[in-house]
Amino acid sequence: MHKEKSDILGNLAQAVIDMDVTRASKAAAEAIISHIDPYEAITDGLARGMDVVSELFENEEYFVPEILLCADAMYAGIEVLKPHFPKEAASNKKKVVIGVVKGDTHDIGKNLVKIMLDNAGFEMHDLGRNVPYAKFIDTAGELNADLVCLSTLMTTTMDGMQVVIEDMKKAGIPARVMVGGGPISPGFARNIGADGYARNAAEAVKVAKSMFQGIQIPLAMKTPELVSIRKKLGGVQ
């Protein structure tokens, strides 16, 4: 029996919430069979499930072990979807350096952005998590990067983004900077001198493309904030 699109997306989200790797993989396969866009399956299915997981963590109903199992389910679904992403050809790929700033080890959101940008035709260089500020500067300079993406989930580490931006300017690195993560807002991004802000992985692709296509997306635009886990040391991004 043919399932409705909303049911499949709901199954993807629920599989993540339930920490069910097998169900996530099966729901992802159903999404492909039903011709649901793989990006939509991630943003409106798997990632939506992780948003709920973040809320459960914030309410102390889920803890770090549950978060890790939920992430495993999400990644299982992504692995099924990845071969079906419409790979965009790019004769002159823009180089992107991406990482989670020093002091923060939450990298689920960063990983989603990396996957989406890679399949949108960008050349990705992932520095991982808990990245020293100087590593962003050195790598961007060595690669002659076009864009640096900074991520954090913690309010205690978000000021590190400004340090990276200021150090890039001092080093004469012309790469543009996009920031994102739970506690980050368009206003904060503007105040620290970032060139772009994205509230999720799908928007990151839109913002990154706009930077190199002459399309202006105002940093001050009002967008819903991501579910954030503020002032806590555990959780997901």
From TrEMBL:
One Gene Ontology molecular-function label: metal ion binding
Domain of life, per lineage: Bacteria
Metal-binding is among the record's keywords: yes
InterPro entries (alphabetical): Cbl-bd_cap (IPR003759), Cobalamin-bd (IPR006158), Cobalamin-bd_sf (IPR036724), Met_Synthase/Corrinoid (IPR050554), Meth_synthase_dom (IPR036594)
GO biological process: homocysteine metabolic process; tetrahydrofolate metabolic process
Residues of the B12-binding domain: 93-222
Domain B12-binding N-terminal: 1-93
Signal peptide annotation: none
GO CC annotation terms, alphabetical: cytosol
Keywords carried by this UniProt record: Cobalt, Metal-binding
One Pfam family of this chain: B12-binding_2
Family: Belongs to the methylamine corrinoid protein family.
Protein's recorded name: Cobalamin-binding protein
